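May I ask for an example protein's residues together with how it folds?

___
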Amino acid sequence: MKAMMPPHWTERREELAARLGRVPRLLVATDFDGTLAPICPRPQDVAMPPGAKASLEALAEQPGVRVAVLSGRALAEVAGLVGLAKAVYAGNHGLEIRGGGIDWVHPQALACRPRLDAAAGFLEEKLRRVEGAFTEHKQLSLSLHYRLVAEHDLPRVEEAAMLCAAAFPELRRHEGKMVVEFRPDVPWNKGYALKHLLKRLGLPGAAALYAGDDATDEDAFAVLGDSGTTLHVGANPATLARCRLRSPEDYAEFLEWLRGLRIP
């Protein structure tokens, strides 16, 4: 049976208002690239839509509301891009978490850094003649970007990724939007990170909202299931999220609505 696209959030406005407006304590958790900000060919060029930061900042100032950003980027980088002092940040897909009294790094991932260093050098050597391909070493994970690569060079990118996976079996390969990621082969993802946050903050899943756009966000959607509020940004009918947002700009409008809902 063909998967059905989840309804747009405005079609569930009343249900969402009842759920998110009445809960005394709320965790607003969100992905960054493709969710809070549109994806850019070069990661350093990304920018949040006007109003998104103001809404998140206003929510973070509210008693009983905690804002968290879970990103594939390094923690320090995403914290600098979002720039909210009162937010909790989970970088490298949750392998490092800081804020709200939490300062934690996955110990097995930390031990794997020398192998990530070696893998980064391996990929750079294999791809130095492939125009548009570049690696992003995030200390606890490694990304191979190919959004700017010409179609005729894509097989060379795939070959390099396959050779890297074979050469470094202690790293696990993950697929994203025009990116291949290599992370330490440890049982951890954004779902585990969200569970960790909920436990540390003393919150049930019903008190959490999570928004994301990529395959890595499906783990967080799975953790919340039907108990929390899950929002997929984009047009993926196979998502586990219960509601849909069209774009980061649409998400900014949702955040403005949520801000009005929570602020008297």
